C-alpha cells in the first residue's frame, strides 16, 4: 500500500518485570524512563539525554519488548514502525511517511519512536544504482534530517533495533543521532531459566517441571524461542488431554523445535 500511515501508536502496559534478565540493559535505559517521565527536570538542569538509542542483537532477544517497557514504565505513547515497511515505495512516499512519524511523536510528546529493522531504511548510501535506491536514500535523508531537527528537550526519544549494525550508514550513528548503543545478546543459562519462568506464569505447570533443566538443554535459544517452547508444550498437553503441562511435554516440544529447524535448514541448503 502506498497511501495511509504505516506507523502505529499505542500505550503499552509492558514493564521491566515482564523482561527476564538484562539487568545492565535495564539500568542503562532507566535514565530514559526518568527523562520521559519529566523532561522539564532535565531541561532545567541543562542535562542532555541521548536522542537516539540503538539496540543491537540477534532476532528474538527482546529488543521490541525492551522498547515497549520503556514506554510502559514511563507511561508515554509508543509510536512504532518497521523499517521494511518503507521498502518499495514510490519516490517521495517514504520520506513523507518519516515526516508523518515524527510529527505524530512531537504532537504526543513525551513519547517514544521505535524503528524495528532499522537496517532496512538505514543501509549505507552511495552506490547509486538508481531507481529504488534513490527512494531509499531520500527516506534515509529525511530520517537524518528529522533527528537533527529536534532538540533533545522536545521529549521524544528514538529507539532503533537491528541485528545488522555492520550495514548501517555511518551517518546514523554519529553524535546527536543513534549515538547510544545497547547490546542485547542471547540470554545466559540463568536468564533462560528466568525467561521460561515468566512464560510459565499463570499456566498449569506440573510439579515435575524444572525450568533449570530446560534452560540447560536450550543453549543458543533466544527469548522468542523459549516463549514458543512453552507454548508448544502447552499445545501438546492439550492434545493429550493432560490437565497439566508435564516435563515430557517440554521434551517433546524441544524435539519438535529441533526437527523443525533441521527441516528449514534442509530447505535452505
Ligand atoms: P526481532 O529482532 O526479531 O524483532 P526482538 O529482539 O525485537 O526480535 P521481541 O519481539 O521483543 O524480540 O521478542 C519476542 C518475544 O520473546 C517477546 O514478545 C517475549 O514474549 C519473548 N522474550 C524475548 N526476550 C525475553 C525476555 N528477556 N524475557 C521475557 N520474554 C522475552
Automatic annotation (TrEMBL):
UniProt-annotated location(s): Cell membrane; Membrane
Binding site for ATP: 57-64
The AAA+ ATPase domain, residue ranges: 49-188
Function in brief: Acts as a processive, ATP-dependent zinc metallopeptidase for both cytoplasmic and membrane proteins. Plays a role in the quality control of integral membrane proteins.
Self-association state and partner proteins as the record states: Homohexamer.
Family: In the C-terminal section; belongs to the peptidase M41 family. In the central section; belongs to the AAA ATPase family.
Protein name according to UniProt: ATP-dependent zinc metalloprotease FtsH
Organism: Euzebya pacifica
Organismal lineage: Bacteria, Bacillati, Actinomycetota, Nitriliruptoria, Euzebyales
Shown chain mapped onto the complete sequence: 141 to 409 of 675
Amino acid at each position: 500500500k502506498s497511501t495511509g500511515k504505516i506507523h502505529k501508536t499505542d500505550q503499552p502496559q509492558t514493564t521491566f518485570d515482564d523482561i527476564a534478565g538484562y539487568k545492565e540493559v535495564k539500568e542503562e535505559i532507566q535514565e530514559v524512563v526518568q527523562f520521559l517521565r519529566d523532561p522539564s527536570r532535565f531541561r532545567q538542569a541543562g542535562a542532555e539525554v541521548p536522542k537516539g538509542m540503538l539496540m543491537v542483537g540477534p532476532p528474538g532477544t527482546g529488543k521490541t519488548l525492551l522498547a515497549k517497557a520503556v514506554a510502559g514504565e514511563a507511561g508515554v505513547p509508543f509510536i512504532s514502525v518497521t523499517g521494511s515497511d518503507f521498502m518499495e515505495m514510490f519516490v517521495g512516499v517514504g520520506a513523507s511517511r518519516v515526516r508523518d512519524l515524527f510529527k505524530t511523536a512531537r504532537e504526543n510528546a513525551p513519547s517514544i519512536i521505535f524503528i524495528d529493522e532499522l537496517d532496512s531504511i538505514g543501509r549505507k548510501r552511495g552506490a547509486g544504482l538508481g531507481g529504488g535506491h534513490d527512494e531509499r536514500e531520500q527516506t534515509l535523508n529525511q530520517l537524518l534530517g528529522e533527528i537533527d531537527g529536534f532538540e533533545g528537550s522536545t521529549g521524544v526519544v528514538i529507539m532503533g533495533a537491528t541485528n545488522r549494525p555492520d550495514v548501517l550508514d555511518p551517518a546514523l550513528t554519529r553524535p546527536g543521532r543513534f549515538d547510544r548503543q545497547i547490546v542485547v545478546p542471547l540470554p545466559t543459562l540463568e536468564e533462560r531459566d528466568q525467561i521460561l519462568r515468566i512464560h510459565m506464569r499463570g499456566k498449569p505447570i506440573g510439579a515435575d517441571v524444572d525450568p533449570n533443566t530446560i534452560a540447560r538443554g536450550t543453549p543458543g535459544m533466544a527469548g522468542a524461542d523459549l516463549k514458543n517452547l512453552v507454548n508448544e508444550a502447552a499445545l501438546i498437553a492439550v492434545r493429550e488431554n493432560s490437565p497439566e503441562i508435564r516435563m515430557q511435554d517440554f521434551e517433546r516440544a524441544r524435539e519438535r523445535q529441533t526437527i523443525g529447524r533441521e527441516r528449514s535448514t534442509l530447505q535452505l541448503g
